[in-house]
Amino acid sequence: MKSSFFVILFTVLFIILGLFNHNKINEFSYNYLDEFNSIEKIIKDENWNKADNLVKKTKKNLEKEKNTWYKLINHEYLNEIFASIEILNQSIYMKDKMICLQELEKIKMVFNNLMEDECYNFNRIF
Questions:
Q1: How far apart are alpha carbons 55 and 68 in whole angstroms?
Q2: Measured between alpha carbons, how far is 20 from 89 in angstroms, rounded to an integer?
Q3: What are the pLDDT digits (tens) for 38-91?
Q4: What is the CA angle 8-11-20, rounded to 5?
Q5: Is 86 helix (H, G, I), strand (E, B) or coil?
Q6: Burial class of 114 by CB neighbour count within 10 A (0 to 12, 13 to 18, 19+)
Q7: What distances in angstroms separate CA 26 from CA 52, 62, 82, 101, one per listed residue?
Q8: Do residues 77 and 109 touch, judged by C-beta distance below 8 A?
Q9: pTM, two decimal places
């Protein structure tokens, strides 16, 4: 009886932690999607200095949060995001609007895939 109680308790605890993780991943992704949407608007207006500053600020914030998320999600998502941010930085420097918009779409797609693939993955709970 005692061991059954602990098994049920730990199962419920893992499910609750999994749902908490689900909400945090959604919150993390939506925050950065909003950031990159505002960067996209600035680039469409061709305000290159403001876009450069905002990309650097967003990258710095993402690097601070990276260590936590490396433990919880697939590393490939964050690696792909950082690679695209580097290309985005270079294309802002060169003032190439088309490549900037292409990389922004790639970043947003990765965040959307992250939410779809990682949030509902109950294999991480068990």
A1: 21
A2: 33
A3: 999 999 999 999 999 999 999 999 998 888 777 777 788 889 999 999 999 999
A4: 140
A5: helix
A6: buried
A7: 26, 15, 19, 23
A8: no
A9: 0.80
Q: What is the mean pLDDT of the chain?
A: 87
Cα gap 79→66, rounded to integer Å: 10
Sign of torsion, CA 50 34 55 80? Answer: negative
CA distance 22 to 16: 10
**Residue that is written with structure tokens 């797609």 in the block:** 109
H-only helix segments in the chain:
2-44, 48-72, 75-93, 97-118
Q: What is the pLDDT of residues 19-29, one digit of tens each?
A: 787 788 888 88
